[in-house]
Design goal:
It is a single chain. The chain has a domain of 27 residues. Helix content is 38%, strand content 0%. The protein is built from one helix and no strands. The radius of gyration is 17 Å and the shape is elongated. The mean pLDDT is 78.
């Protein structure tokens, strides 16, 4: 397996608990995943 470079994003939520973090930051999470989409590899058919 090769080395993968990733850009990490950290969002500080003062006094936040695990369940308190997602809802107010959901838009930022969606933006992050939209900006870091994986490209899909084509599948080989079973007849190959």
């Amino acid at each position: 397996m090769g080395y993968v470079t990733r850009k990490n994003t950290y969002i500080e939520v003062p006094g936040g608990l695990h369940s308190d973090v997602v809802a107010p930051n959901l838009a930022a999470v969606v933006e992050f995943f939209d900006a870091h989409r994986k490209t899909m590899r084509s599948r080989r058919s079973n007849s190959d």
